[in-house]
Amino acid sequence: MSDANDVRASSKTDAVIHKQASPACPPNLADYDAVRAGFSWDAARARLDGLPDGGLNIAYEALDRHARGPRAGRTALRWLGLDGSRRALTYAELLSASCRFAHALATLGVQPGERVFVLTGRVVELYVAVLGAFRAGCTVCPLFSAFGPEPIATRMELGDARVLVTTSALYRRKVAGIRERLPGLRHVILTDGKGDEDDCHAWREVVERAPDAYTLVATRPEDIALLHFTSGTTGRPKGALHAHQAVVTHHLTGHYVLDLHDEDVFWCTADPGWVTGMSYGIIAPLTCGVTNVVVEAEFDAATWYGVLEQEQVSVWYTAPTAIRMLMKLGQEALADYDFKHLRFMASVGEPLNPEAVVWGNEAFGMPFHDNWWQTETGGIMIANYAALDVKPGSMGRPLPGIEAAIVARREDGGVDVIAEPDREGELALKKGWPSMMRDYLNEHERYERCFAGDWYLTGDLARQDADGYFWFVGRADDVIKSAGHLIGPFEVESALMEHPAVAEVGVIGIPDPVAGEQVKAFVALKPGHEPSLELNRALLGHARKRLGAAVAPKTIEFRTNLPKTRSGKIMRRLLKARELGLPEGDLSTLESDEQ
Ligand code: AMP
User: Among the residues of 508-566, which ranges form H helices?
Assistant: First the structure.
């Protein structure tokens, strides 16, 4: 642990954390303004190898270029299993494992461009499958293993899944029952399967026995590599499509934002079922050639502190919910650990309270560096950097190459940029960075609606101060962020509506001191059904079974009627305002009110 950086301010929330430069390890982005001024995406692209004739493939940048050079014998993946077992794969070994997987896909007749879904939890096979599928020119779609059968089925149907890589337990519990809804799903590969049960393949038969000689499919920069589902306020989940070219942003942000240096041991705590776990739990660290630590276990303070110390983690990328859980345990909980290797800490996914940034500085001798991005942006867009002062509570400044602004939408569909500092508006980014989503799957119009002229509109409200730092204000829509996971209220409402007792549902996020927000449902019952504790429990159980624990509501409240607009839409905004005792705002569209 190094000495805490200097915090100068009268109160914690106005604090500025001034950085002391470390002569031993100068930051990759030492002069933000100079790099920003001279930045070009072509130069960023030139940091990678590329393929002959202008091709680009994520797996090549993550593995081949290291495995064929001096990093071949370096540990690429250090995996810590739930049962205490460990595995380490060098760059050369991970390359050959991914070649086997790509070979297996070819033997099964899977074509480039087809979609390979992964639903496994953090097991080694996940990393092999993802990188192997990129090699084979397939599109990878990760699914969160805590999803219930319904979100899994919806996403696999929408995404026309051709191959699924999963575990026997997840298959039995979540996929077997929905398989008839997935006629296009040709192959299920069970990472721990014995072979040919339930019409599935066993990893050890089809992958481990495959040869590791495989010629990488020479993808073009614009070929689609990733499909990430994310939640909107209404309708089905949105499938954000990302091209191989996204690797330019992943690599650059690994270098500039996470400040990855050659000898680093990096740990990203996010699950690869979500975009952070893919972009920064797999792609960025490997393209930077560092050792990537993967922990199969879920959060537990002692385990996490143990990992940081024993694995000698030098760069740690985590999330506010986890930081708040650690804070609750106090500094005593980390007194017995030695974090002398830790050099840089970053956080993403939800607002990071200023107290948490300051606590990091006190407890670890360095602040958590908050950064902002979203599924659609594919990589970090706004960040606090190793060499810049940190204003606790601020998301930081735009990545070199990214132009960010606060805008106001006009009635004609355009936007006005708000140049004045400290004014609230919608956060917008000038389009054209490499990891910008290329489309929403089968919903081009929805994609088009995200743009006004040259600006991509993020749906987040923010402000920018006079020093150019951005501050998160809130979401412009009804989407809920709980424990870092984006949850679409519509998906939760739809699952509850399936229950025979339910007439109407409105789902909102309510503040939670640890998880940021918690999902709460307001339910009106059909005639003949009365509110009761049993029915409340039954509905919670139904939602949990259908949606999984990560998405299901934590509380349900019965109402005789819910507030609706003239067109019959439930006014979540009003439910929320009333729940939180906030002003009710414009009620001109309110047609029928709750009772
Ligand atoms: P996702 O697409 O699931 O990664 O969620 C993206 C959303 O998470 C953003 O649009 C924000 O609403 C929120 N978010 C991400 N990072 C931050 C941050 N550093 N501060 C506040 N909100 C964040």
Answer: 533-547
**DSSP state letter for 63:** I
pLDDT single digits (tens) 179-213: 999 999 999 999 998 766 678 999 999 999 999 99
Identify each DSSP E strand in 9-121 by its residue range.
16-18, 75-80, 86-90, 115-119
Cβ neighbours of 41 (radius 10 Å): 16
Q: DSSP characters for 375-391?
A: GGG-S--EE--TTS-B-
Q: Which atom of ligand 1 is nearest to the CA of 458?
A: 10
SS3 assignment, position 35: helix
- Quote the radius of gyration of the chain (alpha carbons, Å): 24
Quick one: angle between helices 489-497 and 533-547, nearest 10?
120
d(C-alpha 88, C-alpha 410), whole Å: 54
CA 117 to chain centre: 16
String of DSSP letters for 123-151: -HHHHHHHHHHHHTTPEEEE--TT--HHH
Quickly name the fold that domain 480-591 has.
GMP Synthetase; Chain A, domain 3 (3.30.300)
pLDDT recorded at residue 14 = 64
- Alpha helix positions (H), 365-512: 444-448, 489-497
Amino acid identity, residue 486?
Answer: L
Domain ranges of the chain: 52-464, 480-591
Q: What is the pTM of this model?
A: 0.93
Atom of ligand 1 nearest to the CA of 347: 19
For ligand 1, whether the C-beta of 230 sits within 6 Å is: yes
346 lines ligand 1 (CB under 6 A): no
Is there a contact between 552 and 587 (Cβ–Cβ < 8 Å)? no
Separation between Cα atoms, residue 374 and residue 228, nearest integer Å: 11
Find where tokens 């110390």 sit. Answer: 309
Q: Which of 197, 262, 210 is nearest to 96 (CA)?
A: 210
Q: Mean pLDDT in runs of 10 for the chain (595 residues)?
A: 52 71 88 98 98 97 96 98 97 98 98 98 98 98 96 97 97 95 97 82 97 96 98 87 98 98 97 97 98 97 97 97 94 94 96 94 96 98 97 97 97 95 96 98 97 97 97 91 92 93 94 95 95 97 95 96 84 92 80 70
SS (H, E, C) 494-514: HHHHCCCCEEEEEEEEEEECC
**How many Å apart are CA 372 and CA 432, to the nearest integer?**
18
Residue nearest to atom 10 of ligand 1 (CA): 374
H/E element holding 592?
strand 590-592
Query: Residue written as tokens 């002229």?
Result: 453
CATH number 3.40.50.12780 is the correct assignment for the domain at 52-464: yes
Cβ–ligand 1 contact at 278 (below 6 Å): no
